[in-house]
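Wed. Picked up where I left off yesterday with Transporter. The coffee machine is broken again, so keeping this brief.
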Amino acid sequence: MSLQNQEREQWGSRAGFLMAAIGSAIGLGNIWRFPAEAYKNGGGAFLLPYLIALLTAGLPLLILEYTIGRRFRKSPPAAFRQLTRPAEAIGWWQVAICFVIASYYAVIVAWAVRYAGFSFGKDWGKEPEKFFSSDFLHSAPDVGLPSSWVGGVFWPLLAVWVIVLVILGLGVRKGIERANKIFIPLLVVFFVVLVVRAVTLDGAAKGLDALFSPDWGQLTNGSVWVAAYGQIFFSLSIGFGIMVTYASYLPRRADLTNSALVAGFANSSFEILAGIGVFSTLGFMAQAQGVGIDKVVTDGVGLAFIAFPAIISEMPAGALFGVLFFVSLAIAGLTSLISIVQVIISAVQDRTGARRVPVVAVVGGFSAVVSLLVFPTDVGLAILDSCDHFINQYGIALAALVFLVVVGWVLRRLHQFQAHADETSAVKLGLWWRVCLGVITPIVLGWMMVDSLRAEFEENYGGYSTTFLGWAGWGVAGGALLVGVVLAFIPWRDAPDSDVEKTDAAGNPRATEADNAGEVH
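Structure written out below (tokens, as returned):
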């Protein structure tokens, strides 16, 4: 049976939707990106531009994505097509971005799973950096074409993909919602225990002082504000179709604005909690080594898989701390990965009218195969680093900018979407929402593009532009855009009647009996 004979699936409860949205937003970037960004950009003073960025860009864009998803009840390509036919390309562009991100994001989750096991015996020994790059990843000294397969990465990566595809195969309510209702409380419990342990370490106060001591002079530095907006864009899962997709499973009468506020502030609260845990631990490391906190601060892969193992080896009951940290990292990554792959699944379902399980098996399986072929190799880390940089800087942010320009400037639909959101939301949107989306956010995103390109031309990222990886990085970002445009030109079958938006004489969507029956309370 195809989708033509089915009503669109809905979340079982408002709590279920919020758990899924929060699970998507809380990911690896919350744990290993935010603390370092805050430290480098004014410490406690960074929280001011961060909060302003949340209120003027993060939450407004989140509300817009919720509104478009719920109104059209489609994945990004089909939803944007109902805005205007050419905008469908933006949706497929976002789907292509999700495909790229899913292929390497799963690898980091697999690393975290392995390192949870390594923590029991502190298998990295006294040289965690050498262990990570040589003993675990078997990274080639010279970056080139893959030449060897790494079984220690392949098998946990395969397990991660099996878990993700099983959850997605069960559906939105029975799979994604139920999984997040388990994973998110578990993540919070594990991370709170981890943070409590971290703040009781010797030197924790030194680390927290370094993180939260405000350097107010940094607020006059434009790069600090760019960093704040960048952190919000990259941590809220906005700009690449996830929230449009998740909101498409909401009933018509769901409160959009309040849901966005809950998800946005929950995400930011977890980031601050992560900052406390990470810097308490770094403070311990700095004191143990007799060095300044600046000597041990790092972010990304280096923080999680090199700095933290070194710290775990030094601290009392380090094995337990390590298990908690890496399990938390794996859960945070897994909930985000599920949401990323769901964008692809939903888009293909809307495009073909096929049932969920065959789409998950074919499309999700293809994503898994690409991931398993490319990244468990001796150049997997370098490929991951290059893909992550280019798809984030010139995929997600640029797609969000084009999306806002089309909706706000070309089509001038912000008034209409504001009315749609206000119709069922307790917190009403005002002029500030249209100003943020029509002026502030596009300007900031545009400046981020200019600033990033300037830095790119001044210094090749990671030196990759002198190798095939440099061209591969640009190719991944440009290829995602090209795929979006090409897919948009493929003839689109008419949507099933059950999924076609029904409007009244004023052009406002009418609630159906199915909508009212599935109202999220």
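Quick read: The CA atoms of residues 426 and 454 lie 43 Å apart.
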